[in-house]
Amino acid sequence: MSNSVATSEHTETSEREVHIRTCPLCEAMCGLQIHVENEEVKLIRPDRDDVWSKGYICPKGTTLGHIYHDPDRLREPMIRERDVWREATWEEAFARCKELIDGVLERHGKSAFTYYVGNPTVHNFSLGRYIGLFQALAGLDVCYSAGTIDQWPKNVSCRLMYGNSWVIPAPDLPRTSYFLVMGANPHASQGSLLACPDVLGEMDKVRERGGKCVVVDPVRTGTCNHADEWVPIVPGTDAAFLLAMAHTIFEEDLVDLGDVSEIVSGLEDLRKVAEDFSPEWVSETCDIPAETIRRIAREVVAAPCAIVYGRIGLCNQEFGTLASWLIDVLNIITGNFDRPGGLMFGTPIAPAMATLNFEPPSEQEFGRWHSRVRGAPEVLGQVPVSCLSEEIGTPGDGQIKGLITIAGNPVISSPEPEALDEALPQLECMISIDNWLNETTRHAHVILPGLSPLEQPHYDEMIWSWAVRSAGNYSPAIFPPSDDHPQEWEILTRLGAYLAGMDEETFDLATIDDGFLSGLCAYFQMDPEHVLSHYESGGPERMADFMIRVGPWGDRYGENPEGLTLQHFKDNPHGIDMGPMLPRVRDILHTPSGMIEIAPEYILGDLPRLKARVERSRSTSSTASTNGSASGTAEGLVLVSRRHVRSNNSWMHNVKVLVKGKDRCTLLIHPDDAKRTGVTDGSLAQVSSEAGTVEVPVEVTEGIKAGVVSLPHGWGHNKSGARLSIASEHAGINNNILAPGTFVDAISGNAAVNGIPVEVAPVG
After folding, report:
1. 298 in any annotated domain
2. Minimum mean pLDDT among 1-15, 421-435, 599-613, 646-660: which range?
3. Are the beta carbons of 445 and 80 closer than 8 angstroms?
4. Which of 194, 315, 691, 698 is deepest in the core (most CB within 10 A)?
């Protein structure tokens, strides 16, 4: 069976072909067999010979054919004239984009332009490798992204601790003996900032070999079914819980830095701040017994090797940066950092561009500028995405008049989405690179569709940076795109050139692309002329080959004749595996001190805010106890988000096989809270916050902590003008309507969509 096509069966009129491919949808990177007959995907099965996934697959991976054949997917550019959409040629669409961009630049200047980057960018063969070139060409001062919705705290803590915001350690799950999971649900996500096939299966193996898995979460997720213990916690108090664990470890003289002891700076500062957070002091705040906190801390220390793992639920909360930082801290002070079975750094065969250190080590500065309207401080070049609507809608110098969205749907995914929905029509230029006319792109003046995953090659770029093994898979395109359909990298580069002031006469795609690669050659100390001589054309496939060749096992264009090139992966359709994670923190450190900064001053400065939160909850807990409150939390009901194994944020709800069946857009509520609020299972409830109100069906369950309610994210497909025929039939409600735009983690600007105070009442 070859990497491209293998004949598996014949009929009198057709031939079925089987293509080997990697699923591009998430960190699991499952190997697939895609069966095609008469240009139609007939069947998708797991590739049991894949060196990485070994036959594992999730429900989403089986639907790539549905996405390719989706009649709602855009195949041609779309131009909107007032309220009427029409298909256009690529030449006409680019001409209209140039006209719109030039108009805004001439009338308002470049400061009136910005762009938004969505999550699918990192999984796209073109966009992931060329977003940096777009940024360099466009020269825009301000951008927005889904990063400030789901993970900016982790980027902030890694920038301060290790010197690079995208060098992020991941759990070496296959070799651990203790796995503590916080704010993560790999049952649905398949792993987040953790590339490991079949995470739940690996958790089962931990237990089979005598280890233990513990899940700390307000909701009893599907992941808990593969754990020894579920510890419910009050949303937003994870940082207090983790600090109490650190307090125990210091107090009982259990600190062990292991092999990184000589390169850790700030241990005494950490010891001092942990003194104030005893388990007894934070117990009421977290609603977890002090002895449980101490026991878990001791278990992590006593295990032969252990991992403390936290993800999106820790990031998008009130104390996201503190919680994300403390995850790494706990692994470091228990001797479980940069060692097998602990928290380690991946070694990708092809380094990701975002992880390269182009500048010398320097102290990170935040707040270099502030948003025009709210005055929100810049963090890693961005401000909260909720600022976008007010920057569009508020007149004055610097008002946003032009916006480019790249594979994103912020009208669904951002806090206070109705404000953004109302603001977007005020733009003089909105261009979207997107495959659907969705809730956001319906406001665009031009939509430039990319290719289906099956119409382009694939080799994951960023995901291998936090993978449990150094492996790689290349997938060729299965279906050829139309002759005139440009790839996403060409679309992106052209728009960047327009923003740079180039016109059709001065725009030279090949020259720009060669210059991009030449800059990378300089970084890797390679001769650009020698490198370019190996290629007849450019683009992301050339970039993938380059990164493999200059990577740790690469041939460096002849310097290492036995080294790897992209051709090796083409010749090995089931992938190449170079082994498990290796200790390498000394290779990646890029801090000014050359040390792991375990107690960054910027992060420690946020501890008074956490202390105030603990004091407030202790005070209200005492009052509630006196008044006989029945709620599981002293401060009333709080809302948390959730996801489902058949969902991928907002954009896979147009696949019928994924949304059919039981309604999953429901409000989870504990029986005690249902009784107290008067709602019943299956009835409609009104859920209100300071930001808005929604009505949603109720699902009463013991699988959620009392005092907490939960809604899934990514729904709300009821906007007129969107063309999502299946999604509109299963519209659901948008939980972000309840998320106040100003409710953020103060030091990262990340949205706090978990822990939102709400009121619940029966409808009618």
Report:
1. yes
2. 1-15
3. yes
4. 315
